[in-house]
């Protein structure tokens, strides 16, 4: 069989079926650093956990809509597609008529597919908009805090999130990169929409050969690239701001800060300087910082001096703003860069997200891509994306967000397609209670994930290999023709077909489809996109030739300007979109909001102590899958310890608890508990444990456990706290948790995620 082209969030690849019907995958020929996540594809696509027919929770089928605590515990009944579509359409119509469109939550957080047309979130939002709208969510779990904060500081977030200096610029101009939160290689194989060539992995592995020094600040040695001239600063978790302020104090008191830059391009430095010098009664010097962050005061001063002597790029990972008070490390990192006076210079200044995802620092083209129009949502009600449980548990309550006061709607129907909140949300025991509140939960899923198991109506969706699409990522070098490789498993249908059937039943079929089949939509979107490129002087091939060839190399990006270079060149004619037109180190706007958890300038807010749970748990991104995608695949499964997610422990911490490598351990705090497999390593700071996100949530109900259940598979989000970063951004704070770990004696409950739930025909 011949190879067919396709792509994924972890990169472009080829796929084919053998004569015996087995699926084979191979990296794209141009990809010198293909992702290990390709190893999950072949085993996942026909796995036993595939949803094979439309399935209805028995209690909902027999008793109708309504709140219930039985979600996640009852068997499902398989029904025909006609019956399932009738039920979904009727329930949408009932909720709209009885409660209004605001009562429908269509947040449907994405990552379902790298395809541009079968982008599941867009498909669902298009249907709901045709039906009169829905309550939406804003921002992302990944960098939602920064998306709110940065416009107050530098006028917009996109400059730093999407137009950062390239690795080539850094190699040519930078002397020192100071990376708060690390530069983990495992993260850069992933980009929304994928990368064909994965250049960032190569850049991170070789940047030291260009003479660039790396000062990597992280509790984890694995966050340090294995490259010459890299030094690890093993900081205590949740203390990066203390280190940043100690560095800033050194620059200030040794007169190593750039006063001319601060005067011309910034506002509010005098207020911050007073704070550094102790206006609140505490001087933020290197000794003060050392006592909190665990980095010696002499090393803090030495690093500050090296930063002042060099072309320095200060970068803050997305992980640091995914913590309690996550606004502060971003703001304090910007303060450091401003004091060095190099913002707007090639290879200097401030970066945000290097090492967090594959396209930051990439030099690929930043072009508009084919996109399915979603239409207009007339419902203005929204929530910040990480406030799902609050919304479901507290209808009618008010909340603060970015200077405004809003209220949570009374949600009766949750429609989720293309995501898995039981992967990425915090305090999953609380989320289970929240999911008991709506009348109905509808889910599209290829697999029986925890979200599907906690739904009322589960509609089997195809995987990208079972349909056609157009694929490309931000800064990707190619547009990929995603050919269909496999027949759908069971009765799975693509989301477009599912939603078109529902729209037809509600009298909106023509408005949703515009009379086009899925293939006709691909041609239409491609031709529209081709026309837009022609206006820019680029000649893309006709659709038929593109489809036959399987890909088209996108036009070169050309020279990319350094962020804020135009502002630096002429701040009067090219001011920032801030109230002052300058970088706001003190924001009178934010200060006027009156948020104690996010004042008007970067500050140190002491993390809560927890003597009963002395270990800092870091719930970072896995190296073996994308979020929860592919957890049943070979690469992810090979990393398990006795069938459970591995937890990394320092050997000394393990010895204190009588834990040996390979033991099953119980990880717990006041919110929840899970089982994991111990893996001992010296590549982390003592007092730190690492349990990556994405193990499929597998709750074993036990009232003796905190939260009422034990996740037997090892999902860390039973342990993370469902609180916002602050009242300003209401961002996700799920990167850290305080925990205790003990050896699990006895026979642990079995892991059930590799099998479907009970299903009646």
TrEMBL record:
InterPro entries registered for this protein in UniProt: Asp_de-COase-like_dom_sf, CT_DMSOR/BSOR/TMAOR, Molybdopterin_N, MoPterin_dinucl-bd_dom, Mopterin_OxRdtase, Mopterin_OxRdtase_prok_CS, Prok_Mopterin_Oxidored
PROSITE patterns (alphabetical): MOLYBDOPTERIN_PROK_2, MOLYBDOPTERIN_PROK_3
Domain Molybdopterin dinucleotide-binding, residue spans: 615-733
Molybdopterin oxidoreductase domain location: 50-505
Keywords noted in UniProt: Metal-binding, Molybdenum, Oxidoreductase, Periplasm
Pfam family name, one: Molydop_binding
Domain Molybdopterin oxidoreductase N-terminal: 6-46
Cofactor: Mo-bis(molybdopterin guanine dinucleotide)
Keyword Oxidoreductase listed: yes
Entry-linked Gene3D superfamilies: 2.40.40.20, 3.40.50.740, Dimethylsulfoxide Reductase, domain 2 (3.40.228.10), Dimethylsulfoxide Reductase, domain 3 (3.90.55.10)
PANTHER family with a match to the protein in the record: TRIMETHYLAMINE-N-OXIDE REDUCTASE (PTHR43742), TRIMETHYLAMINE-N-OXIDE REDUCTASE 2 (PTHR43742:SF10)
Family: Belongs to the prokaryotic molybdopterin-containing oxidoreductase family.
Name under which the protein is recorded: Molybdopterin oxidoreductase
Source species: Prauserella endophytica
